[in-house]
Input
Amino acid sequence: MHRATDRGLVLAALIDYAQRMSDDRISPTAAFTGQTWVENGLSPANFGSALGRAMYWSTRPAQVLMRRAGAATLQGMLLARHSAIDTVIADEIAEGRVSAVIELACGMSGRGHRFTSEFPDLPYIETDLPAMVARKQRALDELGPHSDNHEVRVLDAFSSHGLFNLVAELRAKYSELADGGGLAIIAEGLMNYFDEATVRNLWHRVVPLLGTGVFIGDLHTRDTNSGLLIAAYEAALGAFVRGKVHIHFQDRAAAEAAMAAEGGRGELRSPADICDVREPASAKRVWILQMRTGA
Ligand SMILES: C[S@@+](CC[C@H](N)C(=O)[O-])C[C@H]1O[C@@H](n2cnc3c(N)ncnc32)[C@H](O)[C@@H]1O
Output
């Protein structure tokens, strides 16, 4: 435990230093995940940052050692969840259940850029808090012209009317969303940073907005995140976010029951059941949550 805590403190000091050295102050978690996508060919290079590089490369030796030992790694978990969400969204589009995407807390994810490059007619609205939106918009503009249907907007994912108003606007604007057409609402790397009541409130508000579509994100439960490893992992994450990581539910069944109680038809699936994963041990630490309309 002490070693995990020491590592967390070293990381926190590094983040402080990197933030002071960085030309802009983006959220540390988004810097780390953003850099992970860049380093693994999932985002353009300019979606990375000085802070992200400092965090990514300082944790790299430990991650390589852990992977060689067959243990779960943060990076392996992140890549598994990101690929699994991509796969679900692509399948939903291919099967005609989703005609537009809203990504909550998009950070520096490259998904919006990748999907709108592949599907230029797909309405894709990335959303986050103001500073992150400004940074994302700058990075997208640097890449040159992008699809007219690809926007980045300020939206607090947990505000009472923001998401509702955005969906109403999109339904009025895009004919493919008329009459209950499907919307994918993505919340990646968001839910475990907020308490259960806040997350359940989001679920409750999201269900009526989906039409034939799906709410999708990642969720950690207690049963797959116990032991010393997760103590180290939580120390690292806690340092990144300077706050508590919330593990709301004991297991998959409890999370699915909570989604039903909020009016949704939800399931948690393992990333390995959705797509190929590079590190099976890491993929087991996270669930892909999918929720649809109708309990
Ligand atoms: C761990 S990062 C994940 C970013 C991205 N989804 C990814 O996977 O790379 C968390 C993101 O949540 C955003 N965020 C935090 N609180 C938020 C809120 N209330 N509404 C919207 N976004 C929020 C942060 O700005 C940050 O971009």
Summary: The CA atoms of residues 171 and 178 lie 6 Å apart. The beta strands are 100-104, 124-128, 150-154, 183-187, 214-219, 264-269, 287-293. Residues 2-68 form one domain. The chain has a mean pLDDT of 88.
